[in-house]
Amino acid sequence: MRKNDFDVIIVGAGPAGLAAGYVLAKEGISVAIIERGIFPGSKNVMGGIFYRSSLDDLIPDFYKEAPIERHIVEQKIWLLSEDSMFSTGIKSEKYNVEPYNCFSIFRAKFDKWFAKKVADASAMIINETVVKDLILDGDRVIGVKTDRPNGDLYCDVVIAADGVNSFLTKSLGLRKKITTNNVALALKEIIELPDKVINDRFGVSGSSEGVTIEITGPYFDKMRAIGFVYTNRNSLSLGLGVVTEDMVKLKINPNDLLEKFKSHPAIKPLINGGETKEYMAHLIPEGGYYSMPKLYSNGFMVVGDAAMLVNSIHREGANLAIESGKFAARTYIEAKKIGDFSQKTLSSYQKKLEDSFVLRDLKTYKNLPKLLEEKQYLISKYPKFIIDAMYEMYNVDKVSKSEKIKLIMNKAKKELGYFNILKDVFSVWRDFR
Ligand SMILES: Cc1cc2nc3c(=O)[nH]c(=O)nc-3n(C[C@H](O)[C@H](O)[C@H](O)COP(=O)(O)OP(=O)(O)OC[C@H]3O[C@@H](n4cnc5c(N)ncnc54)[C@H](O)[C@@H]3O)c2cc1C
Fold first, then answer.
1. CB neighbours of 378 closer than 8 A, spacing ≥ 6?
2. CB distance 48 to ligand 1 below 6 Å
């Protein structure tokens, strides 16, 4: 009888795979994590804001030793038009006390650190190795084929943590086709600036305090696009994610769009004098709940981006990846106790996700991708109206405030239409209730 090489093989050493590996290794399960990059993190791109709570369950107070850039004390939302910017957000001293809510990080450093923790817990991390295929016995996954000579490895369960393009999930037929509507193309630059300049420009009192800005509005024309600027210690992470369908339809060159973004009068002063040190591109799964694949099969589970677990409206991905990795690992531990790795037993992985905030949140926003596909103007026309109305109310030109309110109401009637506003309010209410 064939002997397993490991109890569990995890494909991909991003947050999802590493979290699963950590839980399993801590329980004494023999686990290998196979990563195609030269080290974990070397291939990974993220904005990136990392939320503490999901990893803190596994490694309490991890932020005291992990390579983090700044803890975030202020989160802003900006609406941009060609010449204006409307700002809202939250700054709180509650975000400025340990254990903190979230941090800016660089994935290349952070994943490497996390992987060391996982290896210390006695998981085997095999770098520079590509998983080419699954090995099946009938309809049961029993191992993986790698690009190494004699590289077939056998196990009880394979966990696919291979990111947004997850060909493993596709090869098993669990995934619906990824459409250009389900993914955003994200571009990111790291722009170096002295920490003192960053502190002054973003109004923070020290180099450990950080700010995030999320940006949308009519400036991005007819696109479902979100820009971001995050403060690191000595640099800014600046980027843009645009639903791929919109880029294709409008024949937009992503680089031109990024350059346009950087030249906006509200953005330019933030990066002035900075030097671009890195440029990266990556896909973000943005299809939400309805784009998720089936999450398990016989001897197989799917976690993180491979399972399309991203809540783009709240900029949450890495934390959902960690949660799903933990749940998949715990499901394996339960299955091992009864020696049954069939899909019937592994289906409790989905149940765990359903009972947690991960799928509860994705369900809350399940209709959002469709809503924005049909009504892109919700993030262009309405923000434009808000910007123009705010401009009008703050522009002192000897027109009385009551007259201004009348003008704004007329503009709402002309540009948006009262009936259309009601219809839009109703569809948003219906989709999120
Ligand atoms: C520009 C951008 C900004 C983002 N900003 C944020 C943010 O601010 N906050 C947040 O929480 N999330 C953010 N996200 C989302 C977040 O990065 C992902 O949700 C998260 O990385 C998912 O983790 P994962 O482990 O599932 O996948 P990944 O991090 O993609 O890891 C997959 C790993 O699998 C490896 N791999 C793939 N195929 C194979 C194979 N065949 N063989 C071996 N190895 C393989 C890859 O090399 C990679 O290391 C952002 C994403 C992007 C692109």
1. 371, 372, 424, 428
2. yes
Best of 72, 244, 305, 313 for a ligand 1 pocket test (most atoms within 8 Å of beta carbon): 305
Q: What is the pTM of this model?
A: 0.97
Task: Let me know if domain 8-67+106-178+291-364 sits in CATH 3.50.50.60.
Answer: yes
Q: Is 285 in the pocket of ligand 1 (CB under 6 A)?
A: no
Determine the Cα–Cα distance for residues 47 and 237; give it in Å rounded to an integer: 7
DSSP 273: T
**Residue nearest to ligand 1 atom 21, measured at CA:** 318
Q: Is 213 touching ligand 1 by the criterion CB < 6 Å?
A: no
Check if 12 has its Cβ closer than 6 Å to any atom of ligand 1. Answer: yes
Ligand 1 pocket member 46 (CB < 6 A): yes
pLDDT tens digits for 344-380? 999 999 999 999 999 999 999 999 999 999 999 999 9
Domain limits of the chain? 8-67+106-178+291-364, 183-285, 373-432
CATH class of 183-285: alpha beta
Write out the two tokens for 393. Answer: 């109310």
Nearest ligand 1 atom, CA 305: 26
Average pLDDT, the chain: 96
Measured CA to CA, the distance from residue 82 to residue 221 in angstroms comes to 10
pLDDT tens digits, one per residue of 130-149: 999 999 999 999 999 999 99
